[in-house]
# Entry
Amino acid sequence: MGNQLDALVTVFTEFYYWVTIPLMFLIHIGFCLYEVSVSRHKNHMHTLMKNAMLIPVVTLSFFFFGFWIYFALPQWPLGDIASGTGALPWDLTMGSNYQDHIMGVFWAAFLLFAWTAASIVSGAVIERIRTGAFLILAVLVGSITWVIDAAWGWSPTGWMVTELGYHDAYASGVIHGICGGAALGILVHLGPRIGKFAPDGTPRNINPHNPWFAVIGLFIIYAGFWGFYAACNVPILDFTGDGSVFTATTIYLTPTTLSTITFNFLLSLAGGLLAGYTLSKGDAYWTFSGGLAGIIAASAGNDLYHPLQAFFIAIVGVWIAYRMHFWVERKFKIDDAVGAVAVHGYAGSFGVIICGFMLWGYPSLADGSVTINPLGQIIGAIIMFVVLGFIPTYIVAGILKAMGVLRIPRELELAGLDYIEEQTLDADSKEIKDAELAEVNN
Amino acid sequence: MSTGVESWSAEAVVKIDALYPFVGTEVIMTVIAVVIWIVWHIWQLKFESKTIDEQVSQLQGETLKKIVAGEEDFRWKAV
# Structure
């Protein structure tokens, strides 16, 4: 009976995570649609290709070393990198293996988080970054820095959890905080798009070429976010070890329920949409971005909050993200094309910090050895946004800038990254049309 | 002769781990794949720089002004 139950749990867990993967694929589709629509027509195909090509490079690098980092580095400072993790590309478990049914599914779930991480950064830098430079930065964020923060703060053995009591159930900081910081680190070196700021420093609106599709992209990201939430849970665990309590748990193996996260996901979405609509006076882009920022702000504690707590936190998180976005834009001349630093970075960091106050004293781990506390969460938010988010990309983007491969030349930016390609397509069409006319005239 | 699994019998299946052929070549496959990955990045950076240089050489002076102004009298000439 025990073996049958174990087999059932394994099969259910395998299938559960597998289902989250195509759901999370929607996040990438949504980001692509969103970014392409926000870009101007003269840049839209380049924007699409930049985002799409992060899929192969991050997938490869995540197979080579990204997943290994998660298992190898939980302990400060460098973990136990000499021990076998089963996650190196030549390990038997990192391939089709009849004795291990689940490694590939776990790997893919984490890989989809990695795509999301790189894709968050992608939106902020559109219309002026070189694809090659972006892809290097995508590997840095998607396969190195976010995985280090996951090893440290998103694992029951991570030192941020065991030492600081860090809690971030649905990745307010682990994905969103770090990626907002990473985007900001690149934007400082990249500079604004031509025309973004008037000579007196006043920001101008560079409007999306298709606002309707941009918000549809955000809608699709919401749909994918369900998969993301599901993938952050362990679906069924013999919590007491004697079969008396089976429960879903967070990634820290602390109890939660699918009902809890469903309540809280929807109430934080509602709070975010209301706040975004109100603050922006009904602007569609900021209303939908507000919905996303609301979920992100509540995510750190959405395993335990009351739905109305998630609702209130979402409202405050969106208010902070919205105000900070425009303040930073005006003050520091940062041109974040999609508001990624605000929606992910500021809302996510706020979410991590407020969780420390809301869940103060809750056990961070099932054994109760450490508890959630404000200081641990504040330190955690700084580690995510600044130490692993901003600093690494600031350094690497600085190197790429010094090499002259970070930003496209002025002439190409003015004409548009797609201009030459579109002219070529026009010329091809004209040639065919001429041939058809010649045929008619014969 | 078999490159991997030789039987799907009940006795054999419980002992099978790797399902893929040529077990033992994982390290060399990894090395080759890493080389492909790195070479692709280098190629992409060079390809992109070359393409940008070619395009910028034609997007100068009056031509660029006309493009930005929306006058469609420019045709790309492949180098």
